[in-house]
Amino acid sequence: MELLEDFRAVREELRAFAEREIAPHASRIDREERIPGEVIAALREARVFASGFPEAYGGSIGADPVADAVRHGLMHEALGSASASVQGLVNVHHMGGSPIVRWGTREQKERWLPSLTSGAMMAAIAITEPNVGSQAGAVEARATRDGPDYVVSGTKCWITCGQSADLFVLITGSDDGPTAFILPRDTPGLTIEPIHGLLGCRGYMLAKLHLDRCRLPGDQLLGKPGFGVSHIAAAGLDAGRHNLAWGCVGLAQACLDGSVAYARKRRQFNAPISDFQLVQQMITGMATDIHAARLMCWHAGIMRAKRDPSAVKEGAMAKYNASKMVNRVANDAVQIHGANGCGPDYPVERHYRDARIMEIIEGTSQILEGVIARYVYQEAAQ
Predict the structure, then answer these.
(1) Which CATH fold topology does 124-224 show?
(2) What pTM value is reported for the model?
(3) Which residues are catalytic?
C-alpha cells in the first residue's frame, strides 16, 4: 500500500486535469459523437499523447519505467472517469503507436514516433472487418506483392477513431500469412466512411476503411511478413487491454462518486437514501469491486514495466475483471438513481451505455476467458 500513497498526488493532479479539461465536454461528446478540437488541444498541451512511449522519441518513459507505468495507468483512470470516449481516443493512439515502438525499423520510429508523441498525428489500429472480429488471423483484406511495393484491397470496420486518425497500423492477409503495414490517411485508394449511432462510447468516432488497390511502399511494411497477428497485433492489443482496464476503473469510479452524492441528497421516507441498508449494500459492493480492480491494474502495470513474462496474462486478467466489474457498478448506479438514472439529467445513463461497450472491445470477455485459461493450463503443465 506504500506505493499507492506515493502516487496520491499524481492521481489527484491527473483527476483535476480531467475534471477541468474533459468532463465539461463529456455530454456534448456523447451527443455530437465527436471529440471537439479544444479537448484534443488540451490533451496535446498536457503531453497526454506522449505517455507510454519512449523518451528517446519524445515520450514519457525514462529512467524509472515502473513509476512511468503507474502514472500512465492513473492517467487512463482519470480520463475514463471524465469521458470513456476520450480515454478510448488516447488508448487507440497508444495501441497504434506501440507496435511501431516494438517492431518498427529505426527509420520508421524516427519518421513517425515524434509526431505521435507530440500529438501532431493521431494513430489507430485497423484489424476488425465486416466478417472478421476476434479471429485476427482470418482477415480478408489482402496485400499482394508488386515489385518492391504491396497492393492492398479490402474493408475494415468498427475502427476506433477511424474518422480522425492520421495513421493506421493495418493488418492484412498475404501469401506469407498475416502481415502488418503503416497506412497513412492520405494513401490513394483509401476512403473512410463514418459509423454513427453507437450504443455507448459515442465519441469513439468509429469508421469503416475501404482500401481499393492501395499501393504501399515496402518501407511501410511493419515487422516481418507473417508476423501481423502473433507480433504486431498482439503488441497493440496487449497495450490496449491494459489501458482499457484502467479506463474501466475510472468509469466505475465516476459511477460510484455520482451514486454517493445522489444518495446523500435524495430523500425518501423522511431520510436520505444513503441511510438505507440496501443502498449501503450496493455502495459497499461498488467500492470493493473498484478497489480490487484498481489493484489488479497496478499489478499488471508493474509487470509490464518490468517486462515480466506473465505481463500479458496479467493485462488480460485485469481487462477481463475490470470490464465485467464496471458493468456491475454501472447497473447499481442506475438502480440507486432510480428513474433519474434513466434520463439525460444525470451522467449515469451515459456511464451505463459506455460500460456495456467495455466487455466487447479489445477482446470480448469470452475471448479473454479462452486466453486466460490457456495461460493457466500452461502454468499448470510446467
Answers:
(1) Butyryl-CoA Dehydrogenase, subunit A; domain 2 (2.40.110)
(2) 0.95
(3) 362
